[in-house]
Task: structure prediction
Amino acid sequence: MTYRFLGVTGCPTGIAHTFMAAEALEKTAEEKGVSIKVETHGQRGTENQFTAQEIKDAEVIIIAADKNVDIDRFQGKKVINVSVSKGIKNPEELIDRAISGDVAVYKGSGEAASSNNEKSDQGSANIWHQLYVHLMNGVSHMLPLVVAGGVMIAVSFMFGIYSADPESSQYNVIAEQMNTIGGLAMGLMVPVLSAYIAQSIGNRPGLIIGFIVGMIADTNGTGFLGGIVGGFLAGGLVLLLMKALKNLPKSLDGLKAIFLIPVLGIFIGGFAMWYLSVPMEAINQGMMNFLSSFQDSNPLLLGLIVGVMSAFDMGGPVNKAAYVTGTALLAQGNFLFMAGVSAACIVPPLATGFSVLFARRQYSQAEASAGYVNFLLGSTHITEGAIPFAAKRPFTIIPIIMVGSSIAAMLTYMFKVEVPAPHGGFIVLPVVTHAFLWVLAILIGAVISGFLMALEQKRHQRKNNTEQATAPAPKEQPASKEQGRLLETNQIHLQQKLGSKDEVLTFIAEKAKELNITTDAKKVVSGLQKRESEGSTGMENGIAIPHVKSDAIQQAKLMVVQLAEGIDWPAMDGKPTDFVISILVPDGSSNEHLDILSALSRKLMNQEFIDQLKASQSEAEIKELLLGGVKK
Result:
């Protein structure tokens, strides 16, 4: 069959959004009388993959994905490239644009020739979306290093502020080793950030060059901003080299991949980053001199300057300029300046933690976990934990964090607090003058920024929810023979009074044990909780679909729990969850649970189906809906 249009959908985590976008595009195409084939990129890889002939015959390819897909195969074709959420909520707009034919032609290596009437917002939105995807690829790989390394360093300080120094009377060999291990992990932060931004842009060659450029950025003290610049520099360089070398004979492809691109990339990118570091270093020195001149100024002005600098790049060159100035003044016996710097550096991670507390339902499980860890990181003067939060919307989040850091620094200088230690956070409280006032200043700044961040997160989520409310309802899928064996009425539990997500997961496991679906309830609970830690299974409209694959499960089954009251289960729309459909699959059952998940995801795009499911008053009715579909 020849398809007029092709679609590609994919999300970086989970599976639901991938299939929701696919279903929305397929339904809209059917309504408009055009043919489309959608290729999905989910947890189990690529499905419904296009043939070379299908790509050749297609008029337009619609890509709705938040992950990298093989776009170069569409060279010379008209391509619409948007986020996966656009595929879910604006499929009609995408299909209409494809039908009009007024779409840019993809030329390869990120280049597209625009048609005469190409909408300007298409190009700019697409560029910003791609930049965001590349940046988030680096941040997601960097975050575990920040958390792991930061915690190790923080714990080492508990032996004493100078316990890692062999020359100190506080020296402890375990503390030294922990501090070194943590320092090595933190030292990888900038290179990993740079490498995976470059990898997202230029695939494996980008990873190699990105690591080297990132190491140069880190060695020359450019901080995480240098890592971001280096990552995009390395990735862009790979694309340019691939374009420049594309006319080489096919027989030299191996040489190009393992020699020409890496060597030329390191040579050009390395020198470029090295010389870019020079002006950054000059800027750092100029900032130090500038700050030193404000030592005896009005505390409000000094606090504002220190707060803005400390929160500007959180561990980067601007932050380090304030910090290095503080340590230099410590050596001269000035303990006042460092007190404000430390306070301003502690606020950003604490603010993210308070923001999660104030607006828990607006954050994903992973974001919430990172926010809670930031209470520990912030308390020990490790600012970098706030970077992933700031990187998502820097133009709104960073100014908010600057407000809290500035308030904390101002209050610290007004309270005449002195901190004689260059690091350690709250661990150094025994040697801080006016320690209580110092902690109070920090908490005031962190709470204010956290509250403002929570308001901003709620505003951002409301905007997304308003847009998603216009998403079309796709058709339901008929039940397969295999699905018919998945659910019996004794696996459906109505009006259960359970107060938390963990209680629901435990209830599911225990009922599964009673029904001989599993041999070990504890293993099932552990598996369900592990899946939740990777990302919430909360969907929209109060629905959650927790799932687990375990050798303790004897047969693939669904467990349904209708809750008497909604509970906090991080969802895409931020609403409480009151209906849980759990998928239990034996280990070794191939991708059976993913088949079930994709079918459920498609059904849950249908508002009529959800309304009927929520209104159901009997186990038999719910079973019929889940295995069949919308009742007419």
